[in-house]
Amino acid sequence: MVKRRILVIIVVSLLLGTTLFGAATLGVIAGEPVYHTVKWGETLSRISWMYGVTVQQIVEANELANSNVIYAGQQLLIPVPSEEYVVHIVQAGESLLSIAAKYGVSVWDIARRNGIWNINLIYVGQKLTIPGEGEEPPAPEPTPWVMPQEAIIITSPAMNAEVTSPVTVTGWGSGFENNLAVDVLDGAGSVLGQGYVLVNAEFGQFGPFTGAVEFAAPAIGQLGRISVYGISPRDGAIEHLASVTVKLSP
Prior knowledge:
alpha+beta; Membrane-bound Lytic Murein Transglycosylase D, Chain A; Immunoglobulin-like; 2 domains; three-stranded antiparallel sheet; 13 strands; 21% helix
């Protein structure tokens, strides 16, 4: 009985030690191969952009017969330089901003490496590969683009964030001639300001956008909405739209 109690205490102690000291980060030995599990809708161009390598390098490393034929669940060897990197396991209360600050890299570096479309959406227990400090990957090679689940994603301002004029709007999307329209609306739906954001990508491709839009500030603080949408070049109709509720400050 005594031996059994001692064994239980040892096991519990080991588990606690793992929880306290080993759950947040997992060091990966330099030179270990890096593998990527293909997600639905991903292309080799997208994957090569995430890791800062070329499509041809991935094709050669995996002896692929066709660079346009990959499938969800497929394991791809990524020929990244041999270096030490870290796998971070997301903890309760963490955000990509706090994780990026911890490792001295940018939010977009982590988002790119892990294929994250919305930097406000991560979850507890998620494993994130932390890239080297601020490396600039080569531009992705042009390949047929696969539409993600959402055509337009707003990453800032965040939901219920307090905003003043001019408000900086960022996110991901695609639009005619790489332009997306932005409306700032008050609580009654009246337009307080209009403008455009520019998508940083090849024409017709999905990419990040940013822009500042001025609006007539209300006399008193109130809830409002920021809408980002694409406009059809044929008839001016709204094609895709995303919006976020914000707090408008005078």
